[in-house]
Amino acid sequence: MWRGRKLNSGNRFLGVLRSRCWGTQAEGARLTSSAENQFSWTPQSKPWVFSDYRIMWFKSYKMTFACLNRMRIYRYPWPRLYGTSQSTVDSSEIKTFLALAHRWWDEQGVYAALHSMNDLRVPFIRDNLLKTVAQHQPGKPLSGIKILDVGCGGGLLTEPLGRLGASVIGIDPVAENIKIAQHHKSFDPVLDKRIEYRACSLEEIVEETAETFDAVVASEVVEHVIDLETFIQCCCQVLKPGGSLFITTINKTQLSYALGIAFSEQIAGIVPKGTHTWEKFVSPEKLESILESNGLSVQTVAGMVYNPFSGYWHWSEITSLNYAAHAVKSTEQEHPVPEFVFKGEREELRHKDSTNPGVQEELKK
Known about the structure:
Structural class: alpha/beta
Helix content: 40-55%
CATH class of the domain at 94-329: Alpha Beta
Order of helices and strands: HHHHHEHEHHEEHEHHEEEHH
Number of helices: 13
CATH topology of the domain at 94-329: Rossmann fold
CATH superfamily of the domain at 94-329: Vaccinia Virus protein VP39
CATH architecture of the domain at 94-329: 3-Layer(aba) Sandwich
Strand content: 15-25%
């Protein structure tokens, strides 16, 4: 009885659906009657038939889904270059920094903490880069190394790296920041030869500078971009194989909100209000995951603590506030199966596709 009621209810639904899709109500009734005669007999004589249809549909769905996954796997057999249409620049952030552009070189002003941070971040970059250099010149240890300083602002970090002998390109989407940086470097003829500034975003130079730089620096930048994954992908693409990516940023914790925003911006006024957005902060674990998925091997993660009373930074084992990270780009061009394909499905697809010569070549890449 119950199975009969369920069957009739299902057939009435089929009739309404078909009448709306294929014709008039009368035609729908005719189709319903035909369907009733067919389905009322089939489950009674061969109850396994409907089950087979369901299994066939499920297998078809699974095959389709597997096919889509396979398309995703082989969609990018080589690295994609991101263009200006995928900008990571936040227009509201530009307005904030534009209003403060004239204060970059005021060591006692709103950027005092960044001036002081050079005591940590410059040696951090220098020492890690020297590990990859067999010989270096005294006084110019980074000579011959090409560095991209992303979000350089007024050149607070760009200039010290240039003084160490590196050839540095500083980029920033705020044109006024670049004007300030160019004006300041003009006072030093040596820096004028080693440093170049451009008013642009990272995405705008990806194609022309692919695998150009020995190091990319993004200091106090990633917490301001609107698309972190695209930003990291672009950083990776402009790096030479074996090149280094240096990042300093703020962890996403309750403590970072209390001290980094509530205290620093709203109470002490160490940085202007609205400089940071807690939702954009990123934990070391998440950052490391993004870096690893883009072929960057994380070498070091170290905590940094700022003392607002002394105005100095020091290294710490605690990464719940600020931290620095160093990652190295793989020298092998690997194209792993994306993580959104489950492990079991990846192995199954690889096993099934191993008999296909074309797919086998793609898997070897």
